[in-house]
Batch of 2 targets.
Target 1
Amino acid sequence: MHKAAVMALVLALGLGACGKQDAAQKTGSPPAGPEASAPAAPATATSAAASQPVGAASAGKAFDASGLPVSSAPLGAFPYIALPSGYATGTTPDVADFDQVPFWTGDRLQPVEGRVWSANIAAAQGKTFSDLELVRNIEAVVASLGGAKIFDDRIPEAAAQKIKEWPRDVATKYNSGLGDLWNHPAQVFVVHRADRDIWIHLCSHPFGGGLLIVETRPLQITAGLLPASALKAQIDQTGKVALHVNFATDRTDILADSQPQIGQVVQLLRQDASLKLAVNGYTDGTGDPAHNQALSDGRARAVVAALQAQGIDASRLSSAGLGAADPVADNATPEGQAKNRRVELVKRS
């Protein structure tokens, strides 16, 4: 071929290729290839923040809720999420004023303490349950609250097993909200506020699902120090005195901030060598009665053990757990429940 003709052919081929690339850029179409004919994903009403995980699994680092954008969106009443039309709680929600629940962040189980709401989600009569519809609606609500999805996948088997073994029988207590996370994917969302975090766990399957919501808040410390002189005065007057000793949540461990109060009881007993005390433990009226009785008994024993550890003779002390018996306040309010969780010292003859 003549040299001039060859050059003309090369130039024509180059211009044709450029024309194809320009057309692709103008139309937004991908280059031709194995995936060129795949349809685009349908658009949804959710924002990228709620539909795409931003947690440790996608970022490759330890998750920290404080690193999320701070939400100032208006909040309604707890638990802040209204179910979509055609869906309802299949059972009465389990609610706790203060508890600890583990959430999977993508790299670990994060213990979250605060107010808990847990329920099974089902379709109303005449409605066909759609796990995808439920997920998309929750994503949209979280986006409107300024939150983010931090995980969307199957929770690893080892982590799921740890949830089963979590203290205080959490997997049974909040089974309705955890859903069947051992066999189906789960989504975890966080709404990061200036004064709290709202954690949301959703696990659904073709026939139902679970929704678990925890709003973080610090434990309200209700104990106040009663000096030995005040303890003596009240025991002399009424034969007993109530102490609001703080324990670890749903456990018998006395918290460090209540040790000074234990010290005042020790001082009272040392000042009056003839004084003998019955230590009675009480709980509020929420939860299982048998569990409350056992918990109150363990807490009364813990106080007796703390007094003995500081040299008080065991013969001067006895303990009993009375559960939710003899409330001193209304169990319908958090404030009343706090007053009912107490230890009473009763003078023995």
Target 2
Amino acid sequence: MPKRFVVVASEFPDLPRFPAGFELAEALTVAAQQLHDTVTPHSTMRTAVRLAVHLLPGADHAGISVIERSQHRHTVAWTDEVVRSAETGPTGREQVPYWEQLWSAPVVRLEDSEADDGGAPLAELGLRSALSLRLRTDRRRLTVLTAYAHKPRAFDEAATRVGRLFTAHVSLALDSATVREQLTEAMRTRDLIGQATGILMERMDMDAAEAFESLIKASQRENVKLRDLARRIVGTSQTP
């Protein structure tokens, strides 16, 4: 079960709410610092939704969701409960229609939540506009940051440009946090991974670098954590 966070959209004293021009550059710099100060992907996303409300003109709420190709999705960070309601839907599994477009486009703007492309449920929650921006995508899953507004047509081209600049910073910070988390996890389990590497060296007649690379590729191919794969290899070796 993925971790979930409720985040209060508190004030950032050094961050202009609706930046423009040089103020935008300064605001994005401050935002980038806030994002890169986070230490885990989850804390990065928590910070991102808070910042999104302050940086994106017209935004009242924000959330980040992960969407699977299987249509399953879960919201991992949000500023307010209304975001969870907007992104979960009646069953918790139905796809938000305009999110489908993010598999092929980086941005989707819903100018009036009473439109025919899936905005009516938002209107029932008092939300009239949505701006969805792609953070990550691969063949299996999509990570989306969505800003919501109570006003119709709240997000114009300027808001979209700010959103794309901001999500570029979020994506970089998220990648960095993910790498740091993976490295930390690798250090914690280095003995286990070392044992698995040694077993592969013996079984496959390869050197240490080749064995470790083989372990990494197998982890990615099977979509299994390196630690779990190493534990499986060591456990198999120890079985009489």
